[in-house]
């Protein structure tokens, strides 16, 4: 019974740590994109060359990139 409880506790701890790291990476990613947008020149906006999952052209740009490898 003790081994089962410690295994379950270990599993829950790992899941918690992974979810925290994913949340942190999302906020870092968002902050990075915001920084790029803020510091890009208005005559050459970064949004014209930066494609994220939110962009409707993301899939087609990714497929083209993969084909050109």
Explained architecture:
Keywords: Signal. InterPro entries: FAD-bd_PCMH_sub1 (IPR016167). Residues 1-23 form the signal peptide. The protein is mostly helical and 69 residues long. It has one domain (2-67). It is built from two helices and no strands. The chain has helices spanning 2-39, 58-67. The longest helix has 38 residues, at 2-39. The termini are far apart. The model has no long low-confidence stretch (mean pLDDT 79).
Quick overview of this protein structure:
It is built from 2 helices and no strands. The protein is mainly alpha-helical. It has one domain.
Low-confidence stretches: none
End-to-end separation in angstroms reads 53 Å
Number of structural units classed as domains: 1
- Strand proportion, as a percent range, falls in under 5%
Mean pLDDT: 79
Percentage of residues in helical conformation = 55-70%
Largest beta-sheet details: none
Element order, helices and strands? Answer: HH
The gyration radius over C-alpha positions equals: 20 Å
Question: Structural class per helix/strand content?
Answer: mainly alpha
**Shape, per Cα inertia axes:** elongated
User: How many β-strand stretches?
Assistant: 0
How many distinct helices?
Answer: 2
Topology diagram in text:
Layout: H1 2-39, H2 58-67
Signal peptide: 1-23
InterPro entries: FAD-bd_PCMH_sub1 (IPR016167)
Keywords: Signal
